[in-house]
Amino acid sequence: MDTLWALGIGFRRKRCQLTLDVTFAEPQKGAGTSNAFLELYSDFPSQNGFVSVNSELLKKVIKHLIQTEEGELSFIKVLKQFANFQSLKDSYHETDIVLMVLYDPKQSVESAEEAYFKLHCLSHRTAKPHDVSMDGAFGKLTNVAWSNQGPLLPEDVPQIRWDSLCKGDTLQITHVDKFPYLVNYHLPEGVRIVSGSQVRLGAHLGHGTTVMPTGYVNFNAGSSGSAMIEGRVSAGVFIGDDTDIGGGASIMGTLSGGNEHVISVADNCLLGANAGIGISLGKGCTVEAGLYITAGMKISLVDEEDRPINLEDERVEEGQNIFKAMQLSGREYCLFIRDSRTGQILCKPNKKIIELNKSLHAN
Questions:
Q1: Any idea which architecture 6-140 has in CATH?
Q2: Phi, psi (5° rounding) for residue 157?
């Protein structure tokens, strides 16, 4: 059997044989817990996959973990809660407990259960963006009406709304989508999310990150540490520590034109208000407000005194310093600005490195 990468246990809600969602406890990495399931459960998956488990098995696993001292106390406590679960009668949802295992996180998504587990791995910081493959997730997830009564099939909403009104209740729908909001499934430690509707489950938010009302973070994207996000962090994008994504700023993701090109923003960068990038930024870079840099854009590379230079920082003749933006992708300590007289886009050394307000990010 291959080495297990991660294991998770969660509550699954279904309707008409369709998985609506799965809420996983914190994913477990390491051999201790998996060995207990492996020894006690003959149907333990030998490859990426999931199985439904019952209270009897969970109680045996808990006893094994306590006797062998292999499992973490926090996870044993979670398992006890799962073991005491009793499905509600006459519920809209069919609820059961699933055990999900991943041997190869780079394999494409094969089920809605696997999609949810990988999304939880990202949001629990068990994995960083691109550590797990989300290929195929859209085809496996069910389009759901997310409500105060749980996930619903959209076609069932009219009847449920009338039933609720007849009972004196109110049905509230937040959105119809394949992805739920992060805050309804997990709250990462040390973050501020001003508007929960702006962050999808599967976002990886580092400790100290603040997402303001105009900010947005997609799944399989996020930050490594302290960051101010007032713009859009698209799928596939990962930003570094002490980086500021200004209001209305946009970073092209793998789902929005970036395709296979993975865009990242390193530490201490500033993407000005309403700016945008289709290239990666190395450490200490600034893009002025309103400037959108596409990969094919022609940019003039200059030194501190605005003299033309090449990629090796050597002085050259005017015209020999013009490069496609992609050739500058990942370059460190760059200031990207537009010459207001000529309209020419310049890349010059960045003398002023930003510092985030520490009190704002002491979350």
A1: 2-Layer Sandwich (3.30)
A2: -60, -45
**pLDDT digits 0-9 by tens, 157-203:** 999 999 999 999 999 999 999 999 999 999 999 999 999 999 999 99
User: Tens digit of pLDDT for each residue in 317-338?
Assistant: 999 999 999 999 999 999 999 9
The single residue of 114, 155, 230, 317 carrying the catalytic annotation is 230
pLDDT of 260 reads 63
Q: At the top level of CATH, which class does the domain 182-360 belong to?
A: mainly beta
Residue 242, Ramachandran bin (φ over 0: left; ψ between -120 and 50: alpha; else beta): left
Q: How far apart are CA 114 and CA 126, in angstroms?
A: 15
Level-2 CATH architecture, domain 143-177: 2-Layer Sandwich (3.30)
Domain boundaries, the chain: 6-140, 143-177, 182-360
Task: Single out the residue of 241, 243, 267, 239 nearest to residue 251, CA to CA.
Answer: 239
Q: How far is CA 140 from CA 21, 108, 115, 201, 220, in A?
A: 11, 11, 8, 16, 16
Sheet holding 276-277, edge to edge: 216-217, 232-233, 250-251, 276-277, 292-293
**Rounded to the nearest 5°, which phi and psi values hold at 21?**
-165, 165
Quick check: is 355 catalytic? no
- Rounded to 5 degrees, what are φ and ψ at 74? -65, -40
Name the packing angle between helices 55-68 and 73-83 (round to 10°). Answer: 160
**Alpha carbons 32 and 2: distance in angstroms, whole number:** 15
Burial of 141 (0-12, 13-18, 19+ CB in 10 A): buried
Q: Quick one: three-class SS letters along 28-63?
A: ECCHHHHHHHHHHCCCCCCCCEEEEECHHHHHHHHH
What are the b/e assignments for 69-98, b being 16+ CB within 10 Å?
ebbeeebbebbeebbeeeeeeeebbebbbb
25-46 exposure pattern, b = at least 16 Cβ within 10 A, e = fewer: bbbbbeebbbbbbbeeeeebbe
